[in-house]
Every structure is written in C-alpha cells, then in structure tokens.
Amino acid sequence: VKISEVPTTPIPGMKPGTSGLRKKVEVWQGKTGEKYYVENFIQSLLDTASASNGGRVPETIIVAGDGRYFNDEAIQIICCVLAANGVKDIRVPVAGIMSTPAVSAAIRASPDIKGGIILTASHNPGGPGEDFGIKYNLEYGQPAGEDFTDELYERSTRIQSFKTLEGAVDIDLNAKVGTQIHLTPSSVVTIIDPFEDYVNVLKKCFDFPAMSAFGKRPEFSLLFDGMHGAGGPFARRVLVEELGLDESCLFRCNPLPDFGKGHPDPNLTYAAELVKKMGLLPDGSADPNVDLKQLPTLGAANDGDGDRNLIAGAGCFVTPSDSLAIICDNWSAIPHFAGGPKGVARSMPSSAALDVVAEALGIPCFSTPTGWKFFGNLMSSKELFGKTDYTPFLCGEESFGTGSDHIREKDGLWAALAWVSILMAANKDTPQGQPLVSVRDIVTRHWAKYGRHFYCRYDYEGVDSNDANSVMDLIRSEFVAGEIADNGDIQLVSGEEFSYTDPVDFSTASKQGLILNFTYPNGDPARVVFRLSGTGSAGATIRVYLEKYEKDIEKHGESAPVALKNLANRAIELVQLQKLTGCDAPTVIT
Ligand code: VG1
Ligand code: CO
Q1: In this structure, which residue's CA is closest to atom 11 in ligand 1?
Q2: ipTM over 0.85
Q3: Burial of 471 from C-beta contacts in 10 A (0-12 / 13-18 / 19+)
Q4: CA 18 / ligand 1 centre spacing (Å)
Q5: Which domains does the chain have, with CATH numbers?
C-alpha cells in the first residue's frame, strides 16, 4: 500500500452543530458535486486533534457507527485516512455498529484510546435522501466541545490536501473479534467486541442479579423498542442475555440502514407504535378504551444511536424532565448513586422538576445550554480539572436524554434500567401475585410530593431559515431588549436570552435560547423558551418549550398539551410565529 497526499479544495458548511455534523447522505457520498466530503472532514478533524496533542496524531482511535445507510463505506474511507495519517491502532466493532454510549464507555475503559469517531445523525432518519453524520468524542469519552469543533470548521475552510491509501482496501467488518487487518506497516485495524466495556459499566451502575430476579416476577414485563437503531443489539445483550428477560421484550431491535423507513426519534410522534402498545393516545394521555392490566409494566425506546430514551408505564407517558427528577428523587434505588448524587444538571429548556428535587436534597443543580457536551466538564471536574467533585452526577435534557457520570454521553438503555431499578425498589414489599406499584403510581406520587411541572414541546420542522431567524429577531428586539407592557390574560412579565459560563473552565456560550416568563391570573408562573435546532440538515426547526408549574394536586390529572394550550397560543401569537413563518401548526408535539 502506498500513502498518497490528494489535493482538495475546502467545502463550505462543515460546521458541527449541537452534536456533530449532519448532512444529507448524498453530500457525504460526494454525489452532490463536492468530491471528498468525508476525507476533507476527517482530515480537518485529525489536524485539529493533532494540534491539541503537541502536533502528534492520536495513536489510537475507535471508529463505529449506528448502522445507518453509508455506515460501512464511510468506515472504510475513514480507516484509510486515519492509517495514512499515521494513526497506529484503529478499533472497529464487529459489523461496524456501536451505540454512542457504548463508544463512550469503550474510550473510558482503555486509557490508550484517544478519540472516537461516531458515524451517526442520531435521531434523524437514514437511507437514501436522508441524513448521515459524524460526531467526535475525546479522551474520557466526552463529546468534543465547541473549541474543538470551531477549530475543525476553521481548518475545513482552508484545507488543501488530505492523506489516504492508494488502491482498494477491504476491511471485513464481519470478521471475528480480535481479527487484525494491517493497512500499512505501522497501522492496524482491530475488530473489537462492541459490548464488553459498556456492559461492564452498566453492571457497576445497577444490581444485575436483583434486576434479573425482579424481571422473572410474573407481574412484571418490559417492552423495549430499538427503533431499528444501534441500541437494539445492546438491549438484547443486556435485557435478554444478561438479565434473562424473554425475547418477546425486544421490539424492532435489529439495526436497519433506513431504520425500517422510520424516524428513529423516541418521542410521542415518532415512537407511535410503542406509545400505542403502552395504552397511550398520541398526546401522551391514557387511552380510556384500553385495559391497563394487560399492558407491559414498562415501555422504553431508544433513538438511532442509542443515547436517547422514552419511558412509559401502562397508560402513563413519563416526560423526560419528570423522568430525570424522579430518578433523582429515587437515587437510593440505583447502586451507582450510593450516598446520593453530589450534583445534578439539566439543559436550560428542560423543566424545573429536577431543580425542586435537588433543592430538597440540598445539592447543586446546574442549568446548561442544550447539548450533552455542556455536562462533560461538570462530570469531569475532579478527574480533568482537580476541582470540586460532583460525582455521582445525574443529568438530562427534555429531548429524551438522560444519563450519569458512568460515561460521558446520554444513555438510552441506562435510563430504562434506572426505571427497572425504581420499579424494583418500589415493589420490594409487594407480595407475589399482587399488582405491582406501577410507573403511573410512582409518577403521581412524585407530583403529589413536589407539584407537577406541566411540560411539552412544539417543533416546527422544515421552516425557511430566514423566517425562523426573523421570529428570533422579533423576540429579541421586542421582548428582550424592548420594554414589556403586557396586560394579557396570561401575562408576559419578562424576556431574556440565555447565555452560559461554564463553572469549571469558565468558557462561555451565548445565544442559547430566548426565554419568555409569564404569570397566570392566579399568580402561577409559566415559561416559554424559543430555540433553533442545531441538528438539522436542511432548513430550520423552531423549538417552542412550554412549562407551567402546578401545586394543586386536583389539577395534576390533566393532559399536558391541554393544560398548556392557552400558554402556547398566547406565546405563538406574541412572537407572530404564524405570520412570519406561514406555519399553522407544529409538526411534532411531544
Ligand atoms: C437536539 C436536542 C438536544 C440534544 C441534541 C443531540 O438538539 O434538542 O437536547 O442534545 O439534539 O441529541 P437541537 O439543537 O436539534 O435542539 V442526539 O440524540 O442527536 O445525539
Ligand atoms: Co442520539
């Protein structure tokens, strides 16, 4: 094999967003006119990694993907660029597939692994005409921060050549674990076991023998929807092979390049089948015509790369913000949190349900910008910065992301196991043969204790970018910079733009969401947040996050979209969303 240096020209638009770079797969394939898209991006990435490593290319890198269309071809291209640049030890999982949390676990388990290239567009659909993407994780397993991705982007705008191997290279992704393929005399690809490190980490978080015994109780059953993403094989390995649950608990757990033509985003809209199987209507309320006793105790779903989760009980959808707060309140059910979490965090648009639990526990609760990379420093404050240790740490986002410091990514399967643990603890005194304390019981008791944070999100997908920006500009000029004099029924009291200073390394992030604060006639506070998505591949998505606190237990039974309807109407009218974008209704309500 010969290493060649191929001349290339910069390709515009290689700026990673909230989580990696996502584009239509044809763009990555070079079919839209820009040759060498993958090569340009990976060379820029490697140059960035080398620059922060004293000019030396990282010696060991793991390359894995979520199995979406173009996964295998991209792995071959990337391995050639890595080998040609002198990366000595390239690790690729069997079949090229690993969930994002599993990659994070693998990096953490081997101190010699310096980075992880993850081929995924996460919850975006895959297949021809759909999305492909690449994320990069650093040492310690955390997603690369904005300092890294900004530099990568900057390098991509002045790249002149990339290195690769001349001639065809064929890496058999279905070779046995331990197989080595020498790409150059000094670069070798090793096929690794995708599961081992990750399963070991989960075993430390949870009590597997006790969960296995609980799983055998006839009153308990679980339904796990892999949405044909990378999480499926991991669910099989853990739920069936480790915990001994019946095969029938797995639904859509075989990865498919186009996710079975589905949209692998575990929310009320896109996980419609699971939602129905759990006795829920599309708005998340219980279907009155379904007998809840016949349904699974717990339902869970993952996204394309296995880092998101949806949690539901029989006739009970648990919003991600509530799930996070309930896990926090029930920390004693989860061995990883022995002694109690020392810190917790949520993304700013997530509800304040976590905050009230953290306050009761007397622990710090951080509010961060959207995206898991912002939790990394808090979780690693001791190991990387020698500062206050917040571990064990719990964090999450309203976008169906939940996790802890066991790795540095959100973790869909972990969230499902957290709920199995919570159910197990709640039922330690339930006699055999008696109905179990249910997910619904746990949720309603939580609301009774802390009050309910009604929460829901409207997404307006496929909006023209200029129109979306004009909505944001209007909010800025009228409600953040401007004087507010509102006497509406639900009264707008203040507006602000969220910016963040990382408490560990003091880096800053600005323009992270526009917050409108409201007051109901009875004095109850409410909040609406507007943000533009940073994970799309075309056009813009406006996200509208709605939240209202309700102490009165009599009112906790209402469905969230109904309870928040007036607030939504009021906010959407104030910001002239319909007029500026031409959108009459959101494309997703979750
Ligand atoms: C979305 C979510 C955000 C999440 C990100 C990545 O970002 O809102 O909370 O961290 O996706 O999730 P945005 O910018 O589109 O709102 V994943 O599962 O893609 O890694
Ligand atoms: Co994801």
Answers
A1: 535
A2: yes
A3: buried
A4: 6
A5: 2-194 (3.40.120.10), 198-450 (3.40.120.10), 452-589 (3.30.310.50)
